[in-house]
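Comment thread on ticket #2218

A.B. wrote:
> Attaching the input chain for the structure job we discussed in standup.
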Amino acid sequence: MQKQQIQQLVKECSMGLFDLACSVSGHSSWDLNLPVGVIDARKTRPKLMVTAVGTINSMVRASSTIGHPLMQQFFERMEQVGLDKALEESIGGDQADDFAEIWQAYKQERFEHGAPMWSIEDATAFVLQSREAHQDREVACIAILPGDPHSIATFSVPIAFLTHA
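C.D. wrote:
> Ran it. Output below, let me know if you need it in another format.
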């Protein structure tokens, strides 16, 4: 399903992706100024935004807490039993003190910056993926897909496909 969604987004954003591909092809070597695409598809009409890979977290806010193993366990459990039950289990579990500390940091992070979209680890992986994509003559992209919560997909598209060269 996600592959079809990505293909549809690439089609819908083809004009902007053409411009992005031309810009990326003008970069002979990878650096943090390399442009990447962010397609926000949470609304009816997807919107392509372009930013430098080095500033990706200004567009897709990263969290220093959601990648923590205890938070990952909490999120998985929350999907199974709901927020209240998962929180009750985590606060009363074997690692209650550690969870309480990371939970407090998560709440503070949300209060100060709003809901995070992906983890620092995810953002770092995308930066590395953009380097590989550039070496393969591809454009690195992120899609923010609709849902509750939203999901993030990273992918790359060959420059030749986007420019029909």
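A.B. wrote:
> Thanks. Noting for the ticket: The chain has a mean pLDDT of 91.
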